[in-house]
């Protein structure tokens, strides 16, 4: 089964801490699910629990395949002593990917994201948006069964956002499951199949836009529904 399954009774950063609780959802092959919530709502904690980065987790996480996921962080991480291309070669070696197809795909993605002239430069000299593009390229090259993406649009120019969304659509058609945390609600409403709305460490609604509208009793946009649900919790 290629489904990402998350069932968290509770999770936190230290023993006996419960930052999030009663979080349960599945993401199926070909789905793009938006993780929505204000700052401090628990979105990053949910992602870290899925990635196995928390000290306190009570529940079960099932990721299809062994290490078959790619994580695109909100804040790019890289090796200062490696060039852009050396990062791409490192990802190839770590994931034990063989063949020239990987290199050809890397060159193609570098052209799409307009980094082909900087392949032998160090990411330390890049803008935040360029560093984010490097994170995106490496994730796409792995071709995982699951993408976990945290605020991918920050720092990206409009063309890069359009190109990224187009490639994500191709990955969905390939059968990848995608969990995307974002504050950009109008974009999320257009591209996501379902939504997970989080506040105060708990799921306050989930489902398609129509289902969220029903749960919030608002016949409006995702943002309208979200604000109504937020007010109900105050």
Could you please describe the fold and organization of this structure?
With 234 residues, the chain is of the alpha/beta class. It has 2 domains: 4-68 and 146-233, Rossmann fold (3-Layer(aba) Sandwich), CATH 3.40.50; 80-143, no CATH class. Helix content is 39%, strand content 24%. It is built from 8 helices and 9 strands. It has a 6-stranded mixed β-sheet with strand order 5-6-7-3-8-9, with helices on both faces. A 3-stranded antiparallel β-sheet has the order 2-1-4, with helices on one face. Helix 2 packs parallel to helix 4 and helix 7 runs parallel beside helix 8 (222-233). It is globular, with a radius of gyration of 18 Å.
Features:
234 residues, Rossmann fold, 2 domains, 3-stranded antiparallel beta sheet
